[in-house]
Amino acid sequence: MPTTTRWKNEYGSVMVLNQNAQGEIWGTYSSTTGSSGQYRVLGHGEPLGLPAQCGNSLALAIYWRSYTVGVGDPSWHWVSGLGGQSQVIPDGGASLATPTLTLMHSMVVTDAFPGLARVGTYCDKLVYLLDSAPAESSPYPAWSLPGTSSLLGLWSCREDPALALDLQAQDDATGAVRGFLLLDGARHPLWGFTDVDAAATALPLQAVALTTLMAATPARSLSLAGRLERARRTLLLTELNNQGTAAGNGYLASRTRQLTFTPCSGSGEDGK
Question: Domain range spanning residue 107?
Answer without folding.
Answer: 3-271
